[in-house]
Amino acid sequence: MTTLHPALTTRATELFGVAVPVVQTGMGWVSGARLTSATANAGGLGILASATMSYDELAAAIAETKRRTAKPFGVNLRADAPDAAQRIDLLAAEGVRVASFALAPKQDLIKRCKDHGLVVVPSIGAKRHAEKVAAWGADAVIVQGGEGGGHTGQVPTTVLLPQVVDAVDIPVIAAGGFFDGRGLVAALAYGAAGIAMGTRFLLTSDSAVSQQVKDVYLAKGVADTVVTTEVDGVPHRVLRTAFVEELLRSRALGRMTRALKNAVAFQKLSGTPWKDVVTEGLAMRRSAELSLSQLVMAANTPMLLKAAMVDGRPDLGVLASGQVVGVIEDLPSCQELLDRIVAEATATLERLA
Question: Which of 15, 18, 170, 273 has the least CB density, counted as fewest CB within 10 Å?
Answer without folding.
Answer: 273
